[in-house]
Amino acid sequence: MKHKISIAVIILASMFCKGVDSFAAYNIDNLDSFEKVPLESAQVMPTKAELMRARPRVIVFSFDDYEWRGGGTLASDKVKNELSDTGAILVDRSLPLRLRQDIALSETKRSSGYKGQYVADYAITGKITQANLTKSYNKDNGKHYNTAQIALTIRITELPSMQTVKIINEDGQQITEGRPDPEKILIDALDKVIVKAHTHLKNQFAPSGYVLEHRTYDDNHIFKVSLGKAAGATPGQKVIFIKSVPDKNPLTGVVSIEQVKVAEGEITEQITDSYSFIIIKDKEGMDKIRLGDQIKVLYKNSIWDHLKMI
Description:
The chain is of the alpha+beta class. It has helices at residues 2-21, 48-51, 71-83, 97-107, 182-204, 283-286, 303-309, and strands at 35-37, 57-60, 89-91, 122-138, 143-158, 163-177, 208-217, 220-225, 238-248, 255-271, 276-280, 294-297.
């Protein structure tokens, strides 16, 4: 009975998630009625180079798979699939052999940078650190069980500096009954690992832009931003507004820039290749937004994603 209830809950949750995904993005049907509102400039304005920055080029190498031969290519392909709808441009990983070798050296501190051909802004490497498959038999119910455990390390490296930007460590487990194909159980466990890691990956390369205008009409507030379809943005996506704040170290006197989230919004149906309009309903956060503040697409796990991790 408990098993049937669990299945029913998953089915209902799946239906709910599909329904949420099918909701249309907010449509501004009277855009001409909105009037521009004076917008104070940000304390730290974006540079010309930042405004002209192109979509990041990312190369995903096949992961090391000493624990599961063939699993490395599967894992790296799944990572590429996760990045396919972000702001990243994926580069053919068969091109720069030397780059892969230099990254391996940088991880052992024997290389300070990449001096080869420019092919990407970031490189993603990884390693399957665990791939176990165990079998058991329950005498009480007469059933056979299979447990697959996968652990994965993903490293994002900035080029050509060879600086590590982010390291993601995740693991997953899949338990099944009967005598299924061992490879399939390992792949199912790997899928859970990728689901756990995908928001970290997507947000690292999320499409971004800058605030251009503030418009208002009948207590509705929208912001025009330099983020459009060409950068990878789509209607309905959630975004965050980020302000840059100078921060002086009291000991060294060195000034660094801190980024602070001030508000959240949603991309409306009013979007072109080069810009879009964001609707925001958070009055307190909205009042903190300035001309030149950065906006960035925010990826979150859906309820369906959480169910996949179980």
